[in-house]
Input
Amino acid sequence: MPIQRRFLNAAGLACALVALSPTAVLADPAFPDKPIRIIVPSTAGGGFDVVSRILGQYLGEVLKQNIVIENRTGAGTLVGTQVAAKAAPDGYTLLAGGLSNIVWNMHLYSSPGYDGLADFVPVGLAYTVPYVAVVRKDFPANNLKEMLDLARAQPGKLNMAHLGSGTGAHIMGTYLMKQTGVRFTDVPYKGSQAAYPDLIAGRADVMFDTAPSARPHIQAGNMKALAIVSPRRSSLFPNVPTSAEAGVPGWEIESWVGLFAPAKTPPAVLDKLRSALNQVLSNKELRQKFETTAGEVFTLGPQETEAFIKAEGRKWAAIVRDAGIKPQ
Output
């Protein structure tokens, strides 16, 4: 069942309680009286960036203030997230936080320089998107089972491109190898802009990436989609089966993105930001923009959000451990 639906009733109740809470009523009327920046810990054009810019446009209209998107790259998502963790907890610096930098980094690095749970408080989740398994367009397999059969018959011969150690593409590929017993040759790249040309040219064979990143290449016929690595099919690729339908149940991921504030941000400020985010996420035009990127709106109340993120931490700690990925 989609993560949105699993939490729907709780989310609606929590949003109602936030709207009626005393702190919401008492929120500082002067906030915000200057621009708010959203730190995006990745390059322009990626999933974090696209979602943040869409949110920023509508948040600016609701809060009547400029929202500045600041891309702070380096060491995967570590540098930008570290900058946000050290920012003043006044509501004027937010972080585009997601599965990778809030959860995965805690299990992939021995010293990430921040704690995803202790150093941040969620303003709210906003967006969820599936991953997709893709191969070069002339790859001899046309479905996930055929691809795995080829990999078993030729251990290590197929090149698996990914976007760097600890990225979703890397974790999902490593987890697939652990779960199915196949072996790819691991080929890391510095981001999707470097990886996709090699996959298109046939120098790499297989890759696992978010649907928005892979979508233009699939639609252009430059590569083939074998499976949606999600509990449900994607509306943009209705004929592409899920991983379970393709014969690999349990190999699933739904990446999510939200806005986070530094810990100790005043509750009244958080209430105002949360109220604005809830208003933005109910906007039909924004929902349509999310859908064009292969994603969906994802909302939970504050308590449900914290519970969900903690549950994600436990889940992925076990997956990373079972996949044999060692912290750097």
